[in-house]
Design a protein that fits this description.
mainly alpha; single chain
Length: about 90
């Protein structure tokens, strides 16, 4: 049976939204420790997610490379946010 990558991408998007603080972005979001611009990183991953949600709604079927790329990007952004003590 062929894996359903569309469902996998939907699940990944939900996991990313649960793991990252999208709703906490404001002027006080930055911390004293800064190893990367947290606001820009959150904005970037939010755009990537919005882009994939749009593509999925239009019927695009992601491949494993697409899923892996989004997952790795989210992991790296989460690591920076942890280093910056924001999550």
């Amino acid at each position: 049976m062929k894996p359903n990558t569309t469902k996998a991408m939907h699940r990944l998007i939900v996991q990313i939204k649960d793991a990252l603080p999208f709703n906490e972005i404001d002027s006080n979001f930055c911390s004293d420790v800064c190893t990367g611009c947290s606001v820009k990183l959150i904005s970037f991953i939010e755009i990537e997610i919005d882009n994939w949600e749009y593509k999925l709604n239009k019927g695009k079927v992601p491949n494993f490379k697409d899923i892996n790329k989004l997952a790795n990007t989210a992991k790296k952004i989460r690591a920076v946010l942890l280093k910056n003590k924001l999550i």
